[in-house]
Amino acid sequence: MKSQTAVKFFLALALVCSSLLAKDMILTTLDGQKIVLHEDNTWTFQNGKRGEIDQDFTVPVNGGKIVLIATDGTWGFVEKEIVHQEEEVKADSVVGNGHSVNKDVMAANAEAQKLALAQATAKIKVALGKLKIDAAKLSDCIKRAEKDVTKKEDFKQGTGWDVSVRVFLDRGSILAVADCAMKKDDEAADSTKKAASAKKKPGKKPAAQ
């Protein structure tokens, strides 16, 4: 299973648990694919083939439990779901526009850029959806990210400098901003524990429906 397909496929799971054999359990996906959870905390697809996935993922099951399906072929219970940020970003691009008129060209530029950045920040905050973002870092992260900035200056007699600034970020830049502003505390701890968690709790399985 290719990584992009696998990630989208598994994150969209609506899990149904049922008995396969006396000691194994099976997770059934909405489109009929089945993953077998073995008693020794390994997993396979129901057809018997070793699962080929490029990223660990988690699946919520009955009773508020969360099952980790790992790339090393093991499964286990964890406390938190894994969030793959590329799947949570809801925009392919973000544009921020700013406009200012001032007799001082430097002041007009500064205000227009400030407004463009503020608009881009607000849009990216919405685009990042459920990701655990430190909103206070967003503006600085956008400043660091690779982006297109276009500017138009026009001097008008009697009013001064009319300046327009446009800030454009593509999906790659949005992902870079997300990575920069992501809250790392829980994610880092969960990442280091997931392999151990998969092997330390062999006795419990999702409740069958």
List the helices and strands and how they pair.
Blueprint: H1 3-11, E1 16-19, E2 25-28, E3 34-37, E4 43-45, E5 57-60, E6 66-69, E7 75-78, H2 85-88, E8 93-102, H3 105-127, H4 138-144, E9 148-156, E10 160-170, H5 171-181, H6 185-200
Antiparallel strand pairs: 1-2, 2-3, 3-4, 5-6, 6-7, 8-10, 9-10
Helix pairs in contact: 3-4, 4-5
Strand content: 25-35%
Helix/strand/pairing category = alpha+beta
Could you tell me the number of beta strands? 10
Q: Rough shape?
A: rod-shaped
Order of helices and strands: HEEEEEEEHEHHEEHH
Averaging pLDDT over every residue, what do you get? 77
Major sheet summary line? 4 strands, antiparallel
Instruction: Report the helical percentage.
Output: 25-40%
Rg calc: 24 Å
Q: How many H/I helices?
A: 6
The tally of domains stands at: 2
Cα end-to-end separation = 27 Å
The order of strands across the largest sheet is: 1-2-3-4
How is this structure best described in words?
With about 210 residues, this protein is an alpha+beta fold. The protein folds into 2 domains: about 5-85 and about 185-200, no CATH class; about 90-185, no CATH class. Helix content is about 35%, strand content about 25%. It contains 6 helices and 10 strands, in the order αβββββββαβααββαα. The strands form 3 sheets. Strands 1-2-3-4 form a 4-stranded antiparallel sheet, with no helix packed on it. Strands 5-6-7 form a 3-stranded antiparallel sheet. It has a 3-stranded antiparallel sheet with strand order 8-10-9. α3 (about 105-125) crosses α4 (about 140-145) and α4 packs across α5 (about 170-180). The longest helix has 23 residues, at about 105-125. Residues about 1-20 and about 190-195 have low confidence and may be disordered.
